[in-house]
Amino acid sequence: MLTELLQGTDAGGFLIIQDSASYSGRHLLKSFINAALNREEAVHVLGFEVSEEELKDGLKGSPVQRLHFHNAYTDPLGWTDQPSFTVHQFCLEELTRLVKQTSHPKPATLVIDSLSWILRHVSAPAVCKTLQQLRKGGAVRAIMGLLHVDMHQRGTVGSLCHLATSVITVAPGMKGDEAVAKITKRSKSGKVVQDEEIFSIKTDLTVVVQSKPSQLGHKQADPEEQETDPTANLTFNLRLSNTEREAKEKLALPFVFSKEKKTALLHSSPGSGRILYEPDANDDYDQEDPDDDLDV
Amino acid sequence: MAAPVSTVGKPSTERSPFNTTSFQKKTRTKLISIPGTRPSVQNGQLLVSTGVTSLDYLLGGGLAVGTVLLIEEDRYDSYSRMILKYFLAEGVVCRHELFVAAAQDNPDDILQVGEEVPYFPRLSCEPQDSLDAMKIAWRYQNLPKVQSALASSSRFGHYYDVSKTMEPEIRQAAKCHCFYLPEHPTQSSPTHSTMLESYSALLKSLQEVINREGFDVAAPMTKSRNILRIGLHSLGSALWGDDLSCHDNPRNGHALTTFLYGLRALLRSSLSVAVVTVPSHLIQVSITRLCDNAIALESFKGSERETNPLYKDYHGLLHVRQVPHLNCLASKLPDHKDLAFKLKRKQFTIERLHLPPDLSETVSRVSRGELAGAATVASACGSGSSGKKHLDF
Fold first, then answer.
1. Is there a contact between B104 and A132 if contact means CB atoms under 8 Å apart?
2. CB-based contact (8 Å) between B246 and chain A?
3. B338 CA: distance to closest CA in chain A (Å)
4. Average pLDDT, chain B
5. Where are the annotated segments for Disordered (chain A) (predicted)?
């Protein structure tokens, strides 16, 4: 599912990459930027955490001209006289103006690196409102954001992911350069699809998806089921031949009643207390001779 | 108290001129007959259907007029939205008026409700010849199977097919008031109220609609009465401007609770019913005490319970958090606490979750192992992990 997401989000899509201190999601974000650039889309990056050179490192070729980096790294809070982009400019009007400045036929993709930085300085409801307005307005086609989960409270992360259409949570994998991605995708009709994949990113920023990790655990359980059959090597015969089976089924069990008696019992059950007596051989008991049954 | 049946009718006391005796028949107060409602068999409250018949059964026959139903949303807000749509669809079919408020999606999207279908319930008891005659346990042959579906004897409410959308003509025949927060003009009030501007704007809008359209109980009975169905989507989420769901110690901690208090006060004096959905998985504070009825939906999607074989027929669990105490000391509690729901195309059913019998040894071992959630447990007495499942001491 990671490859599907890389190939393009639908219009109005909002993707969040959740990472933590143990594994940085910025490489995956750069792969998404690379994929968007290769699709001939214009990408606007709000860079708060890393500088322009570091972000553009690895992105090569002519598509890089479509990448517009808005420098919020040098002076994000507007302490100098001429800041290029400050965190207070994160609102609908400013962002729409910023995106529309560079004229391009297709609507642009907005990448936010990172949402955590903005959340430290702008209240969470305001950030949610701006993102929702950006999605509904037509200036931006898709939004991608990086969110550091361990920097925020659970409610903040939850509220932002509630707005998102796709959420990818990355975590370090077993081997060196592999990582595990848990993906949740919500479609417009309300269906939710979840997936877990192992991936690694090559130097040219393409993502290689390997097999899913959840399958490995289950395969170990299956060989245990093929146990030895305990009825295989016995000194006595447990099986029945056909004639023996027929004879067994014909045998009348002692407490099995005939069909008429069963239906009579079933239908007369409410209320009545009838005693149904079928004379049995053992009931011929002679009162005068109590030792009649002795076999002497 | 919720609009009791007796106060709305006016007993007639005028004497007919042609009546020769002074005897006047004492007329009983007229029962108001609003389409789509019926009096409760337990306490005479006027009830409306929520649109889901099994939910009506759980709430004691229906939703009492003048009360609030709180739905705690599931994680991805799919089923709570579905119940809201059922509620609004029932309003359209019963020709009630609707009021929808949302901050995230346009209310028109929420109003795309399912189409009403006639439903013929399947007979619960099966004929005898279809069952194999039991050989050994034949005395139990005539006993009915376990009744897991919740159903009441009288049919109240309609069924909807959610894969289709209701005809726009039918939907537009019902009068609908929409409140979409981004499009609502924001008036910043200078008062130091504990409520947020978005909530106070919503409450003002509701009050205005109730007074203007005559849903107030105190209003003179000039025209025929109707019920106002209010659907509020995802209150308390960040898009309403509330940071209750974002922070553990929110600044506006009392905004939502004040709003719910005001809403309940408004509803008690009017002929309206409200269904409010709240993303409670994000909210630390419990607000179930502020609403008359409260249910919580827990969907299996995305949780580890999805693969549990016990839950394979169902889409999620339903917890009843609060039952209403309307004009009484004790209320009717639901008999069954383990309820699960499933959404089929034509019906949203809520059923008792009952465990099927363990028929074979391996089945019970597998389910026990999965319920515990343990993958491999290291134990001092066990030799290896492979043989552990089949040993029981």
1. yes
2. yes
3. 25
4. 76
5. 212-232, 265-296
Rg (CA), chain B: 25
Instruction: Please tell me the predicted confidence (pLDDT) of residue A149.
Output: 93
Assess whether pLDDT exceeds 80 at residue A44.
yes
Which residues in chain B are contacts of A123 at CB distance < 8 A?
A: 243, 246
Share of chain B above pLDDT 90, in %: 16
| Tally of structural domains, chain A | 1
Do A159 and B142 lie within an 8 Å CB cutoff? no
- Measured N-to-C along each axis, helices B197-213 and B255-268 cross at an angle, to the nearest 10 degrees, of 10
- Say yes or no to pLDDT of B380 above 50: no
Helices A154-163 and A124-136, axial angle in degrees (round to 10): 10
Q: ipTM > 0.90?
A: no
CA torsion B295-B301-B303-B306 (nearest 10°) is: 110
Q: How far is Cα A47 from Cα A70, in angstroms, rounded to an integer?
A: 6
Check CB contact of A261 with chain B, cutoff 8 Å.
Answer: no
More confident residue, B252 or B230: B230
Q: Which two tokens stand for residue B68?
A: 């609030």
A105: pLDDT strictly greater than 90: no
CATH number where A104 lies: 3.40.50.300
Output the six-digit token pair for B185.
Answer: 């003009």
pLDDT at A148 over 90: yes
DSSP one-letter string for B344-384:
-SS-EEEEE--PPP--SHHHHHHHHHHHHT-S----SS-S-
- Which pLDDT band holds residue A15 (cuts at 50, 70, 90)? very high
User: Is A282 within a domain?
Assistant: no
Whether A278 maps to a domain, the answer reads no
The reported pLDDT for the residue numbered B230 is 94
Cβ-defined contact of A217 to B375 (cutoff 8 Å)? yes
- Please give the sequence-ordered ranges of beta strands (E in DSSP) within A131-286, or none if there are none: 140-148, 166-172, 179-186, 192-201, 207-210
Q: State the pTM of this model.
A: 0.76
Chain B segment 301-360 residues within 8 A of A by beta carbon are 301-302
pLDDT surpassing 80 at residue A123:
yes
For range A82-108, the mean pLDDT: 83
The dihedrals phi and psi of A137, each to the nearest 5 degrees, come to -75, 170
A239, part of any domain: no
Measured CA to CA, the distance from residue A80 to residue B346 in angstroms comes to: 63
Residue A95 belongs to some domain of the structure = yes
- What range does the domain containing A98 cover? 2-214
